[in-house]
């Protein structure tokens, strides 16, 4: 007797309300005796399974003696009892469904890699060798397939506590251990049967993409990004150009901060006086009046932070040129003066030596001829000695002048290099 035949029989019996009581009681007794031998008992009438997992639908069935089982199969959402489709012949199920039972009593199956499309009512049906020996087990198994979703606030402030929840659309039938991931790295210390992740005293390092999963399951939830906001820290000023600041050039001061969300409001101060706003403070034509200490303040909705002060020293170009020129002139004057002093001393020394080499007439008492020859010889020696001294003195003076010229050229070259370096720094 099939389950559908039983339903029709009850309807027929009830329709004979005008029939004598005895036949009615007899029919009911026949039904009670015959239907008690047919049945399907399901271990779980409702199953909530995780996406991409394997589901076991366990059951056993009974039928009267004298019947021989010819076919057993599972079906879903049957339109009528006679035309119930066999899932093992369905292309969507044939590769994923495995019958674990037998043709005696066990009717368990395994359905692998389930998706949300597999959420249906499933029934076990068997047929026998007799026309009235067909049965579909009711009420069947209600299968719901769920995924996992991380529920978390979009933004949390540093220092607060936050709770993340791994949610499913139904209560999972099999208890499992939840696993949490941050930026694709497992949080090994967060493994428990609770589907919540509690972060206490959140730090900026806790920001990232969070996912959840079940242990021994391949499915992982989509990522949810947790933002951790914090006030400005490590605010500092960068100066461009970084070289010596020359009067007339331009300079940019930028305020940098590592806050989240990034700071959008900045204030600039020279000493203790407010001088401007914006992340970049520019001075187009800098002068000595701009020399001093500068600092900035970054401001967010979560706090503010001052930077350390930086000092700007502005140098005047004209002052540099005058300074270098004065140095060159003074150096040249010192060298010339030293040369003149040396020449003067040299000349005095030569005159003294020439005076010593001349004869004293009041001492010499020789004859006129001898005196004349002696004087002549002395004059010749003095002349040659004086000529040699004049030549040596001129050569030495020329050499000193060349050295002086070389020194002047070196000083001028140094001046040009300094000016060129200042121009490069101002770019």
UniProtKB/TrEMBL annotation:
Alphabetized Gene3D superfamilies for the sequence: Immunoglobulins
SUPFAM superfamilies tied to this protein: Immunoglobulin
Superkingdom classification of source: Eukaryota
Spans through the membrane: 323-343, 397-421
Domain Ig-like positions: 139-229, 232-311
Signal peptide limits: none
A matching Pfam family: Ig_CD22
Function: Most highly expressed siglec (sialic acid-binding immunoglobulin-like lectin) on B-cells that plays a role in various aspects of B-cell biology including differentiation, antigen presentation, and trafficking to bone marrow. Binds to alpha 2,6-linked sialic acid residues of surface molecules such as CD22 itself, CD45 and IgM in a cis configuration. Can also bind to ligands on other cells as an adhesion molecule in a trans configuration.
PANTHER family: B-CELL RECEPTOR CD22-RELATED, VASCULAR CELL ADHESION MOLECULE 1
Subunit structure: Predominantly monomer of isoform CD22-beta. Also found as heterodimer of isoform CD22-beta and a shorter isoform. Interacts with PTPN6/SHP-1, LYN, SYK, PIK3R1/PIK3R2 and PLCG1 upon phosphorylation. Interacts with GRB2, INPP5D and SHC1 upon phosphorylation. May form a complex with INPP5D/SHIP, GRB2 and SHC1.
Protein name: B-cell receptor CD22
Species for this entry: Cyprinus carpio carpio
